[in-house]
# Entry
Amino acid sequence: MDDPHDGVLLTQRRVPFPSSISEQARQALQRMVGADGVPINASYSMPANGDREGWIALQSAVQRQYAATVAKKVMPKTASVETVMVDQTVIHVATPDTMDREGFAYVDLHGGALVFGGGDACRASAQVEAQKHGVRCYGVDYRMPPDHPYPAALDDCLTAYRYVLERHLPYNVIIGGRSAGGNLAVAMLLRGREEGLPMPSALVLLSPELDLTESGDSFKVNQMVDVVLPGSLMSCNRLYAGEADLAHPYLSPLFGELDGLPPTFLQTGTRDLFLSNAVRMHRKLRRANIPVELHVFEAMPHGGFSGEAPEDIELIQDVKLFVRSHWPS
# Structure
């Protein structure tokens, strides 16, 4: 029986969208909630772990949605892309129409709960990042379950990082990861450190999924308040991990030894289900004497607002400033 003193009992209540954010952000939040006040995304259900066909079908549907969303961000005058295969790893190499910095590179690790987000969406994302930073971007189209559980994605990220290091000096490289990509970015550097690989110049982690055990406070406090990610991703986490321990640092890098990691940019929002991931990572990096910035946006859910709200644009500018400040001049 649950301990009646272990926690706060909440009665049913409606949490309003605050007036402290832009009108565009409020409208974005409103669009993601039904008339009953329940987030639209809460109606989605995940297949059972053994249901391969169910996961493949869901992946296909989500891939189309992701690709359409990212494609809207790709400008008519944009980066060209060449897709290369290195061993079993697919890498989309995007070159901006105007190269601001020769010899520099941005490695983009896409989000998607470690199960979704590859293919056309990954390719388009590499184009967006290349144009944003004015450098060559390497989008890692890592393998995913159900056919390729852990450590396939992490292996692919290491393969891609080695490929980049063969072409760029490590201090000219910055690694960026969104959500699940943030998990892989840190896990890749932890494993790369063990294998003697040099660290990049900096690390950008946007609402990173750093704890697959979902032990942080916000996994309960922001449940259903995060209209983008209203509930647990544990079914995806277990599908990705297979038989591996979710608490292992290569799966939950929040639990790893962080000494030697590069300067880090962390972003989250007060309504982000993964808020605790960023907050705890910030404290751990500080204790390891790693230079770190933590950017927390008011009422922002997982992944931001519409992408065009003033807060989203401000975040993009913050990231660009951080990236430019950590490349050699």
Remarks:
- Strands lie at 80-86, 89-95, 105-109, 136-141, 173-178, 202-206, 264-269, 292-297.
